[in-house]
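Subject: Interface between my chains keeps coming out wrong

I've been trying for a while to get a sensible model of this assembly. When I model each chain on its own everything looks fine, but I need the whole thing in one frame so I can look at the contacts. Pasting all components below, labels as-is. Any help appreciated, I'm running out of ideas.
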Amino acid sequence: MSKPGLPRGTRDFGPEQMFRRNYIIDNIRKVFERYGFQPLETPSMENLSVLTGKYGNEGDQLLFKVLNSGDYLSKTSGDDYAAGSKSLTPKISNKGLRYDLTVPFARYVVMHQNDITFPFKRYQIQPVWRADNPQKGRYREFYQCDADIIGTDSTLSDLEIVWLIHDVYKSLGLGDFELKMNNRRILTAISEYIGEPGKEGPLCVAIDKLDKIGLESVITELERSGFSSKSCELLSEVIQIKGSNEEKVDKLMGLIGDLPNGERGLQDVSFILGHASSKKDIQLKLDFDLTLARGLSYYTGTIFEVKPTSVKMGSITGGGRYDDLTGIFGLNGVSGTGISFGIDRIYDVMLELNLFPEEQSSNTKVLITNFGEKELDFSLKVLNDLRSAGISTEIYPSNAKMKKQFNYANKRGIPYVAVIGSEEASNQTITLKDMVSGSQDQLGLKEVLEKLVV
Amino acid sequence: MSKPGLPRGTRDFGPEQMFRRNYIIDNIRKVFERYGFQPLETPSMENLSVLTGKYGNEGDQLLFKVLNSGDYLSKTSGDDYAAGSKSLTPKISNKGLRYDLTVPFARYVVMHQNDITFPFKRYQIQPVWRADNPQKGRYREFYQCDADIIGTDSTLSDLEIVWLIHDVYKSLGLGDFELKMNNRRILTAISEYIGEPGKEGPLCVAIDKLDKIGLESVITELERSGFSSKSCELLSEVIQIKGSNEEKVDKLMGLIGDLPNGERGLQDVSFILGHASSKKDIQLKLDFDLTLARGLSYYTGTIFEVKPTSVKMGSITGGGRYDDLTGIFGLNGVSGTGISFGIDRIYDVMLELNLFPEEQSSNTKVLITNFGEKELDFSLKVLNDLRSAGISTEIYPSNAKMKKQFNYANKRGIPYVAVIGSEEASNQTITLKDMVSGSQDQLGLKEVLEKLVV
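Reply #2:
Try treating it as a single job with all components included. I did that and got this:
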């Protein structure tokens, strides 16, 4: 028999990883709900008509497609086969695995537009699948964790996203990050200001690479795609404007404040900067960064990105405002703003910074020993009473040697062992051993409960 | 543009359904962890070599298969195409969606046998996929919710499953159910007793249909598959034994107690019956039911099934002991016992019995009105202070008409609206309207917090 394995780019999450992942997800969910976001889940499979054409050509390549059930070849011909994979696919597969949570969300909104109360604040935490080449930190199945406010173009909602990001990371004990913010309207205004109106698309794509390839190469790329050297010179000046967030806004107001997109974009940035720090517990490095562009084409207003400051890692959270998410399904004019938390990367950062609580590695607090039939009645009473008090408790299932039972507790990281031998059973007492300190006490059931209930 | 839709047999879970589903899942998870079960998640896709041949021919048909990425036809020939779907499939697809949580669990145990501390108590709550014909209550994507104790053959673990079932349903407020229990060894002994040794397989399959087709048809089916009429007569007598659980054990002991399987099976049943009621808060209709057989072939010991008593519905929970789950992957002799909760059916039962808490329909407790820029500073202060106190709060994102803002609160089922107009903003007060009673009070922020913090 061949050894069983896992598909490339997929992972099992054992107990230790699951406790940590649940710690992250539970905390995020709590914050989402405190902000009034409502949960949504969509099916793993979507019709390919819903998915295809939404992520560009490259995205379409990365969709996992599901074979139609039954005799899927029955409606094909030898010619279809001869025409090759690409043209055979739509004839043998009409479903695919979701690629992100955004397109399914847009589909949901369009299908339920008459039932939804707008503005609609939804969150969604589910896996997505991409047939990408697996590498360190890149998987073929991974979780996305999105929150969106849709059906309003109010900048107040963008401000809420800033606070949401702050409170999520606060709840995780991860304060060590920088929140970069920019606005697509400002980038549009800049393209007008430098004399290349309508070219904000290539501008964003190029600027997005600044971090990786540097200013010089970005300029080269822009010149190659038709930007004049005068434009590039102006651009270099603009995106190198220095100063505090407020100083940058002031300087830009002088340059692009007369352009409608410039004015509105800078107003939005000012509004967010002006109010963000009014939250009394805020501790946030909020950086108005003109070089932040975000790759995705659907953003139209405020954009966000979070990077940890002391760990080498790309963006762990990103999002922004879009004017027309549901237009792809025929429902126009629905503006929204949203954010996506990268759980896998947050996990890695928290692990490196040692931010997971100790007790997350095991849930069981007490192991009750098993000496056999005679002691069983009292042992089971203790077991049930501890559990009723909310204490995670196990009993060793067989009367194996004590060494084996203690070994089990040790390996599982269970902090207390309740020894109930014949003496204890007849006295109705418990010898409670603290597995960390090694100390042990003979206690009554009441005392054990008092000691262990938090 | 065509209207977007969902693949057959799949569902969106909107906010209301999600709150209820999360209520069920969170409660079950809490009980699982109180019992020391540890979380596990496996990938949605498994290699077809792992999945195929584990669920019988019918099961193999119901596997969703994922097309290989890239030019998946490159390694095929026209002959492969001509040979038809069945023989082409393994050449163009090597992955499938998981069909249940049991086979992936067995694969995980085999792959991690050297790292796992046995006995291993794991739980797993994830969706599974089956290309079944969708009908009422049967979906192509649905959740399974499993807990297993593996690596021990102790009957104490079966007893734990009984208590686990009890506590799960108690936590859901669903006391209205019957737990049927039987033991495969007893069924094996019965097949020996009636003179058809080795035929426990067809016996189980036939008995499993008793509920649906009645005793007479079961007998007919057994006779057709070669059972003698004498055997069938004896069988009818045995499975119609009446009395309390204990009386049934006694009577059976007289009939099959001398057969090793009969003795051991009845010992297990006695052990569970004898101890189950020792749990002090127990309220459980536990029924030793000789006609319970469970379809799945891998059970070898105690078997369980839960049905609601006052709602017409099939099994909502089922499981039992197996001796050789991991044998399919070459690791023999690993005994275990487990249980699976059917979340979709539990959802339907709880909905029918009106068991979901009212407040599960929305998470937001307070909506703060939006009158515009002037009132914004104080409104945002109230917003952040309420959230900091753990109260789910929203602010309406734009200064729309009050009617619209109140409508939003109404439709969302938000119980309080905090009106902050110009008067309130200048007094630093809040007019808090109770949307249920209609009453309203002008309060300070402190008073609002006192009133709303639970």
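Reply #3:
Confirming on my end. Chain A has a mean pLDDT of 94.
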